[in-house]
Amino acid sequence: NELYAVVGNPISHSKSPRIHSLFACQTGEPVEYTAIQAPIDEFSGTVRHFFERGGKGLNVTVPFKEQAWTLADHRTPRAEKAGAANTLFLDQENELVADNTDGVGIVRDLQNNHGVALKGLKVLVLGAGGAVRGVIGPILAEQPAELTIANRTVAKAEALVRLFAKDAGATVLSACGFEAPDQPFDLIINGTSASLQGDLPPVSANVIGPATVVYDMMYSLQTTTFNQWALDHGAHRVHDGLGMLVEQAAESFFVWRGVRPETAPVIEELRTD
Ligand code: ATR
């Protein structure tokens, strides 16, 4: 078997080993996938050691995605723009390549699993941290009508708008604070880490209309804090980030193996775990 792993700290709750084992089973690919907890100050040594031992590919998670991006000798265009990497592998010259599959992960989950085509939609993204930066490029590529990035620290949302201005095409791309948006959006994506503390970004309930679809990039067994708030204010549908997690994993699997696993049965399996 060929060796793959996810590196993070902490790592014990990671669903990636389970997801990739299911992919390996389903596709018959000779993939063995483990979890590695890297000491906080030992990420690069952990990566080097893994590939020296013959490892074929790594996923990278919190808090090392930016370090993975810095460490790589080469970056795919989508990783370059994301400023963070969740996927590492060696090229034919044995040089370290960084990729980022998070952005296509959310777009595929929305479009393929939830029937939400982004083209022409009015989209509100809450948050402007690393997780949001990773998804802006792939969302813009689908040509929404509007993409509004709202954040507690408005300057960070403005910096993202400058960074992606050239990729916006016909999309109206703008930045603001949480209190500014006051009209219903077609799609609201929560990319803040506020819900980790059971907190809500203080956005007006006017952003939710009867047709609004809400997507929380977090996932949990129960409805997330943000999604519950959205339901309480009449959102049409809410989704959490489990599908995104499986879709980014499938894209990494494809990057490494050239084989695209089916995601729907894996998402279903994880829901009932
Ligand atoms: P991640 O990798 O999860 O994106 P991050 O880069 O630290 O982590 O970004 C966290 C995001 O959640 C930021 O947009 C942050 O707002 P600031 O940029 O103003 O710090 C947002 N966030 C975190 N805690 C929050 C809270 N309690 N209320 C609202 N927004 C919060």
Q: Which structural traits does this protein have?
A:
Shikimate dehydrogenase (NADP(+)); 10 helices; binds 2'-monophosphoadenosine-5'-diphosphate; Rossmann fold; 273 residues; amino-acid biosynthesis; 2 domains; globular; SDH_C
Write up this protein.
By secondary structure, this protein is α/β, with parallel strands linked by helices. It has two domains: 2-100 and 243-271, Rossmann fold; 103-240, Rossmann fold. Helices cover 38% and strands 20% of the residues. The protein contains ten helices and twelve strands. The strands form two sheets. A six-stranded mixed β-sheet has the order 2-1-3-5-6-4, sandwiched between helices. Strands 9-8-7-10-11-12 form a six-stranded parallel β-sheet, sandwiched between helices. Helix 6 (130-141) links the parallel strand 7 and strand 8 (146-150). Helix 1 (16-27) crosses helix 9, helix 5 (102-114) crosses helix 6 (130-141) and helix 5 (102-114) packs across helix 9. The longest helix has 16 residues, at 242-257. The protein is globular and about 55 Å long. The model has no long low-confidence stretch (mean pLDDT 97). Bound molecules: 2'-monophosphoadenosine-5'-diphosphate. Residues 127-132, 151-153, 156, 192-194, 197, 199, 201 line the site of 2'-monophosphoadenosine-5'-diphosphate. Its EC number is 1.1.1.25.
